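Sample entry (440 residues):
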Amino acid sequence: MVQKVAILSNLSIKENGLGLGDRLELTPLNARKRTLKLMKTHYKFVIRQGVEYQQKGEEIWLPGLKEEEGEFSLDLWGEGKDHDKRYLLRALSSNYFKVNEQWCAEVFLQRYSTIYLGFNRIETKNNLSHSKKSDDDEIDKRELFFEKWGQSNLPLLLKGETGSGKSHMAKSIANKLFPEKKFIHINISSFSPSLLESELFGHEKGAFTGAHQNKLGALRESHYGVLYLDEIDSLSLELQTKLLLFFDNNEVRPVGGARSYPVQNKLIISTGRSLDDLLKAGKIRSDFYFRLHSGLEFELGPLRQRLNSIQEILDLFMVQHKVHFSRQLTQFILNYSWPGNYRQLMGYLKKKALLEGPGYLDVSLIDENLLNIKKLNSMGELEVFRPLEEVKNDYIKRAYISFDQKVDMVSNVLKISPYKIKNALEDFKGKEREAFKKVI
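Predicted structure, serialized as C-alpha cells:
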C-alpha cells in the first residue's frame, strides 16, 4: 500500500518534521556518504542509470538501475514563515520511494527517518545548531570515529555496564556503515561452553552425538558480513585459545573438520565487565587480553550521563511508533537516572506507547508503575519540576475540561478571572485538547 501525504497540522510533524537547517545524509549506490544541509525551499532528485552522484544547484543526481529511473521533488510546504514550514517529498514519476519501510508517493519527512530512492539511502537528521555545542561536537566525533573504524580492518571493542546499549549501538553501526552486509549477533553468555564451540565454529556431520548435519557456525555465517560477539568476557579459557587463532589468521576449522575455511568479516566485540579485573583474576588469557585491545575501543557511559543519546533515542522512537512526547514527559525522561540503562528506557517507552498511545503522551500516574518509582509528591504524582506558570496553566486546563469547558464555573471554583482562563487556553486547541483529555 502506498502512503499519501500526511496533514501538516499533525503535532508530530510540526515539532519533528524536517525543516530549514536540518540535514540529509546521502549514501548513493556504490559511493561514499555525503551530507546536505537543507537551506533552499526546493530540491529535485534525479535517478538515472550510468550517472555518478553530483549536485547541480537545486538538482541532485543519483545513480540507479534502468527500472529505477525517476524524479522526486523536495519542497518546503506550509503556512507562515519558512522556519515554520516542513519539507514534503513527492514522486514525480511512477516509481515511488520508501520511508521507514513504507512505500510512499508523497509524505512530510520527519527527522531520524530512513529513505530509499531506488538503492540510494538517505537519512534525515536534525539541525546540529539546535543542540548544545558540546553535544554537537561529541556526536560529530563519534560518527567520525566509527567511520574510520569502518574503513579499517581492525576489530571494534565496545565497553559499558549491563544494559548501556552496546547491542543497540553495534547493530546501529552495522546498519549505518554496511547496510548491504548481513549482521550476525551471538551472545556468548547465553550458551554453555560445550554448545558455544559449535555455535561459533560450526561442526561437521557426525562430529559428536546429535550432530546429524553440517553447521556453519557464526564465524563462517558472517563471511563478508558483520559479526558481533556480545559479552566476550564470558568466554572460557579453552575457547579463548581457539578464538585467538581465528583473530590471528582469519581461518575457521569446524568441530570434527579436517580443513580450515577463510573468513573475511567486520568484527565488533563487547564486554560488560572490566577486562583488567578479569586478567588479574586469571579468567582471561594475557595474549587474548592484548588481542582484544589491539583494535579500536569505544566506551559507553551510563545512560544518565548521555543526555544527547537519550534525546536521539526519543526522536527515533517517536517516528517509528507514531507517538509524540510532551515537553513535560521529555524532561521527566531526561531527568530520570535510568539505573537499568538503555534496556530499561526502551522497555519503559514501549510499554508507555502501548498503554497510552498512539498520539500525544504526557506524564501520568502510570509512570510510577512502569518504572517502579516510590518517591511521589504529596498529591501522589511523580515529582517532575516545571516552571510555576506552566503548572498553573495546566491546572486551569484540567479544570476547564473537567467542568465541560464552562469558563464561568472554572472562574468561580478557582477564584480567577475569565481573562486569566482565556490566556491559559490560548495554545490549547484541537488535537492537543483531545490528547489532554486522555491524561486527566
